[in-house]
Design goal:
The chain has about 375 residues and is an alpha+beta fold. The chain has three domains: about 140 residues, no CATH class; about 70 residues; about 100 residues, no CATH class. The chain has seven helices and 23 strands. The strands form eight sheets. It has a six-stranded antiparallel beta barrel. A hairpin with a 5-residue loop joins strand 6 and strand 7. Helix 1 packs antiparallel against helix 6. The protein is flat and about 105 Å long. One of its GO terms (cellular component) is bacterial-type flagellum basal body, distal rod, P ring. One of its GO terms (molecular function) is structural molecule activity. This is Flagellar P-ring protein. It is found in: Bacterial flagellum basal body. One of its GO terms (biological process) is bacterial-type flagellum-dependent cell motility.
């Protein structure tokens, strides 16, 4: 299996492209307390066309139906055995947006937890959705919309997408609002998406330059405390302007991400190698730095410049020790190894060895 040449080319183009001069503060940080809250609940989907749970294998479905019927005033005779085909036990999940108020609707996802073949055409019975504190924040109910198709013929079946998962747009109504302490003590906190002390200091500088001195203070490499107006109306306007401020983030740390299954390699910036020696199977990678001389034109006041340009030569030579000199680009090494048809495991082994030897000055992440 060969590495994608187009992916390597894309990485090279990305590395060569200039970094954006500034980004919105809204894209770099979030406001503490302004977040979603996960909700979940256990419910029953009814009205299926014979594609529900096999009750002999999912006793909790029968128990749920019996309990629901008792709540509706229907008492089944003792010893009654229910053989249900149109009912499925499901888990209902949703995200409660920040500042959601009672009466608003949110989208929900309905997922089968039994052995139902499909939820298509089913109706979710009223289901309470609870938060992490076990309090009910929304009530869900509605017709389940399932994407995909399924067909069966002559003992074989064909299925496209998951028929055991569906969605209900606006299927839950918010019943309780989540308390928010935004603006408590006339201050808000900005939390950077990535810890970086230089970016934090630049955010403080940008805020203070726009609103005035001592408005923002960095508490650490991620959290910045900002003084805000006491009036809620003024605070909203203030936060709107704050999120729109442009800040030049610091260059991110060098990182190499490799997918060991597909062989994809992604680098977030130009990564170079320190001097080292490698021998791996029948692969031979030779990297040398040859001087290149730039001679100014006659009569000009320019100076002669000598630079070291790494030259990469990759061959299959078993047993040969590979010398890598300082300054070699990892992007070029990956591209050269890919050119001879090396496997993903070959590259993975080489990258891990480079990292262990201290030659790869970047964070290596294997996914």
């Amino acid at each position: 299996m060969r590495f994608s040449a187009s992916l390597i080319a894309l990485c090279a183009a990305f590395l060569a492209a200039p970094l954006a001069s500034a980004e919105r503060l809204k894209d770099l940080a979030s406001i503490a307390g302004v977040r979603q809250n996960q909700l979940s609940g256990y419910g029953i989907v009814v009205g299926l066309d014979g594609t529900g749970d096999q009750t002999t294998q999912t006793p909790f479905t029968v128990q749920s139906i019996v309990s629901m019927l008792q709540q509706k005033g229907v008492n089944l005779p003792a010893g009654t055995s229910l053989q249900l085909k149109n009912v499925a036990a499901v888990m209902v999940t949703a995200s409660l947006p920040a500042f959601a108020q009672p009466g608003q609707t949110i989208d929900i996802t309905v997922s089968s937890i039994g052995n139902a073949k499909s939820l298509r055409g089913g109706t979710l019975v009223m289901t309470p959705l609870q938060g992490a504190d076990q309090q009910v924040y929304a009530m869900a109910q509605g017709n389940v919309l399932v994407g995909g198709v399924g067909a069966a013929a002559a003992g074989s079946s064909i299925q496209v997408n998951h028929l055991s998962v569906g969605k209900i747009s606006g299927g839950a109504t918010v019943e309780r609002a989540v308390a928010s302490n935004l603006g408590a003590d006339n201050q808000v906190r900005l939390e950077l998406n990535t810890t970086d002390f230089l970016t934090a200091s630049r955010v403080v500088e940008a805020v203070n330059n726009h609103f005035g001195p001592d408005i923002a203070t960095a508490l650490d490499g991620r959290v910045i405390r900002v003084r805000s107006p006491s009036s809620s109306d003024q605070r909203v306007a203030f936060l709107g302007i704050l999120e729109s401020l442009e800040v030049s983030p610091a260059a991110s740390s060098a990182k190499v991400i490799m997918n060991a299954r597909t062989g994809s390699v992604v680098m977030n910036q130009a990564v170079t190698l320190e001097s080292c020696a490698i021998s791996h199977g029948n692969l031979s990678v030779t990297i040398s730095a040859e001087p290149q001389v730039s001679q100014p034109a006659p009569g000009s006041r320019g100076n002669t410049v000598v630079t070291q340009a790494p030259q990469i030569d990759v061959k299959k030579e078993p047993g040969r020790v590979v010398m890598l000199k300082s300054g070699a680009s990892l992007a070029e090494v990956v591209k050269a190894i890919n050119a001879i048809g090396a496997s993903p495991q070959d590259l993975l082994s080489i990258l891990q060895a480079l990292k262990a030897a201290g030659s790869l000055r970047a964070e290596l992440e294997i996914i």
